[in-house]
Every structure is written in C-alpha cells, then in structure tokens.
Amino acid sequence: MRFHKDDRGTRYCDIFPEIGKGDINITIVEPHAAALWHRHKFQSDWQFVVKGSLKVGVCNLPQYKDEDFARYPQQMVDFIEESKKEWTNTYKPIYQKSLKNYENISIGKLTNKKVAMVFGDEPQCHWHYLSEHNANEGALFIPSGLWHGCYNYTNEPAILAYHITNKWDGSDEERVHPLKMGWNYEREVK
Fold this sequence. Notes:
Jelly Rolls, seven-stranded mixed beta sheet, alpha+beta
C-alpha cells in the first residue's frame, strides 16, 4: 500500500494490491482543499464519494478567450497553443478510444453509470457534484486523456473512493497548476 499525506488530504493507495489490474484508492480530502489538475494517457478513473461532498472537474483544455491573447504573458500563450496541439494530436484520440472502451464494458446489472461529458475542440469543463447524497447514482467515469481534479467546497472532510484502471507508477501522470488552467473551481453562491 502507498500512503501520502499533505495539506490537501490523506491518500491510501493500492489498498488491495492483489487486484491484478489497476488500483483501488481512498482519499480523505480536507475542507476547502483543491487537488487540481492532472491527466493520464493510459489510465481511466472511476470516482465515488462515500462521505461528504466534492466538486469534480473534468476538462479538455485550459480556459481562454482568443480576444484576450494580446494581454496574456507569452508563457501563457505558449501553454495554450501547445495545449491545443496536444489535445488535437494526442489526447483527443486517447479520450475517444477510452470512451469507446467504456461503452463496451459490461457492468452487469449496474445501470446508474455517470460518464464525463462529450468534449470537442473548444475548451470545455464539466463539473460534477459527487456526494454521499447522490452516491446511489454510481461512480463517475473519467476517460483517459482528460484533465481532472476535485475541490472540497464544504466545512467537513470528504472521503473519495476511486479505481484507476492501471497500476500507478508515476509515469502516466501529468500535472498543471490550477491558475494556469483558468477554470474557476470554487462553488458559486446563488
């Protein structure tokens, strides 16, 4: 079992190492903690909140506006341009293959399946509110190739159980700072 603790929470990883394919992990996400953004080329995620509530974001590209490019620092313009190329040439085909594999999975009598939304070539981010109160809807499937992460918008710790489809070794995880992605993850007060 792998164990990791930081200011965002506590992670218990590969808690059933005898399982041949993938890991089953448990993360306790501290109140108001954000664990954003990362993506994988080879593994997909199934996420399920056991206790508390999380706002889970899934996106394809950083948020940007073409008309604002002139005001962006060159480093940000370069990041956006490179992200668009990576999405088109690498990650979109990976995502589409992962989504097709998901559609072919036989899950027995489980009919309450949730999947991250369909993504095209424009920047999109879909937010999913996962909690113990809607857990009966099933786990959220996050296809490989998409940026994802979570934010605990409550005053209580949240417990996230998740399955990754490959054994974790660190080589299939790319991370980027939340501010660079540009998506507002905080909960809107209405």
